[in-house]
Amino acid sequence: MAERRPIATRNARWAAATAQALARSRITPNMISQASIVFAALAGLAFWASAQAVALGAAVLLILGALGCQLRLLCNLFDGMVAVEGGKSAPDGPFWNEAPDRFADIAILVGAGLALDQPTLGFAAAAAAVLTAYIRELGRAEGAPVDFSGPMAKPQRMAAITAGAVLGAVEILTTGTQWALTVTLWAVAVGAAFTALRRSARLIAHLKNPD
N or C end of the chain, less CB within 10 A? Predict the structure, then answer.
């Protein structure tokens, strides 16, 4: 399908085998999408809790937060595969395909901000992330090509936060500081804002000259 986000992992054998197993089960794509909210919420809570912990406890919570981010992405991968390749799409599928992602972005990015005791930065990153999706869906509604461009589209945001959290865990254990996650969250906030502006410019150009 032309309007699906291009994901190389979708072609991996393990991904196809897992999607086929899920399609044969009673699990629906909507359930998988809903699970992504749970994993994102757990990631956000782990990030927030890391600010209340010290040393090893804080490091473990950051790793758990990173794991939650990746599980959220796996849900994003498999809900579409089960719906399309598995033939289990539902009439309300488009809602569950998009809405949970917005909740997930907010939970994870705000949680990362709370981990740093910088809630404003977390909310700024979350707002920019939601805006990138809004511009993409506005373009889709207007008949423009679906724009998944970055530099901080969803996969890049989650990869960055995952890496920042893991590096932050190492940093806490070695130096007791949190520069890695701070720099990462700033990069996500600025990069997502740039992405929203880039997608806006491309959409405006298409609306002015649809041919």
Answer: C
